[in-house]
Amino acid sequence: MKKAVLVLSALAATTTAAWAQSSVSLYGIVDVGVRRTTNEHSAGQPSDSIVRVVGGGMSQSRLGVNITEDMGGGLRALANMEHRLTSDNGTVAAADFWRQSWVGLQGGFGRVTVGRQYNVLFDLVTSTYASFPYSPYAEEYKPEIGFALGARASNMVKYMAEMGPIRGGVQVSAGEGSATGGKTMGGYVRYAASGLAIGAGMQNYEFGSGKKVKATTFGASYRTGPWYLNAGYAVNKADNGLTATDMAVLGSMWTGSANGGFGGAAFLAANKRTMWTVGAGYQLTPQLNLGAHYWKADQTGVTAAAKADANFLALMADYAFSKRTDAYIGFDNTGLSGNVSLNGANGAANGAKKRSGTMVGLRHRF
């Protein structure tokens, strides 16, 4: 009897220790802004400005769960579930409730994760030459996201490893017979030390027809004192002969009022887009960060009518009240040329060639 009690006590102690090595943390962002834009009317409507409350000006609001278990010997189990929402009205931000949902292992061999997660292009740009040092992207104005092939991918296996200042990652995801496709393959490598970060990456996306779009990007950033400087390049090249379903998928990656998407009839004829970016950030005070970023994009296609280009500019100021709460104000401007136009509030092209936007908002991170 005494031996049984001792064994049960030892097991209980072991189980308690194991539980103590696991952690579950809740995190999130609540961001609400007020935004005014010009020329975002629906086709055929007066070109008055639109003022709206947006559920994420600098960051998309989210609620997530991080899970970590230390299994000993340097091996850890990881899991993440993250939901995105529009905090101005409390609705879901996308059809997929969990924008991320993955599980993985991390150890001396690196890290392997499986499930829906960020793709390698998003990983590279965000960690290496993001537009703004205090918030990688401005949620309501992020032209560069249109070149990340959707930012996330489902059914993905991703491997990442670090060796000193060098980090690399590769991904593979299965299309699983989907009519819209979704099979991907890609990788990246980056170097970061002494304030300098530089990297390059590529990724392929296969449509349901078997046709592909190939994306490549490279860039660098440098931090010195209060300054943050960055520059980058990206190109998306799609195969000729895409089906209507393929074009709808490609359109979901390339278009949108937030990411500087083109509209108009020439969009369907386009199969190549390139973008150059350059930006700077300056920390004026411990609380106040200033940022400016410029993007130059152009597209070509199978016909001369597809030729078009765009210029994007964003100026941002962010004031931190504390480590978790900050306020921001921003100005942005978009200009197009060629047989393309911007999208209106209903998502359809409205014929507008220019648009300016201003926003002010408050963000809390926990």
Structure description:
By secondary structure, the chain is mainly beta. The chain is built from three helices and 18 strands. It has helices at residues 2-20, 120-128, 244-254; strands at residues 22-37, 50-54, 62-70, 76-86, 91-92, 98-107, 110-118, 152-163, 166-173, 183-193, 196-206, 212-224, 227-238, 270-283, 288-301, 308-320, 325-338, 354-365. Strands 1-3-4-6-7-8-9-10-11-12-13-14-15-16-17-18 form a 16-stranded antiparallel β-barrel. Strand 6 (98-107) and strand 7 (110-118) form a beta hairpin. The N and C termini lie far apart (50 Å). The relative contact order is 0.15. Residues 1-20 have low confidence and may be disordered.
SSE string, helices as H and strands as E: HEEEEEEEHEEEEEEHEEEEE
> How would you classify the helix and strand content by structural class?
mainly beta
Helix content: 10-25%
Q: Segments where pLDDT lies below 50 for 5+ residues? A: 1-20
Describe the sheet with the most strands. 16 strands, antiparallel, barrel
Strand proportion, as a percent range, falls in: over 45%
Distance between the termini: 50 Å
Radius of gyration: 23 Å
What topology, given as strand order, has the largest sheet? Answer: 1-3-4-6-7-8-9-10-11-12-13-14-15-16-17-18
The shape is globular
Q: How many helices?
A: 3
Q: What number is the mean pLDDT?
A: 89
Tally the beta strands.
Answer: 18
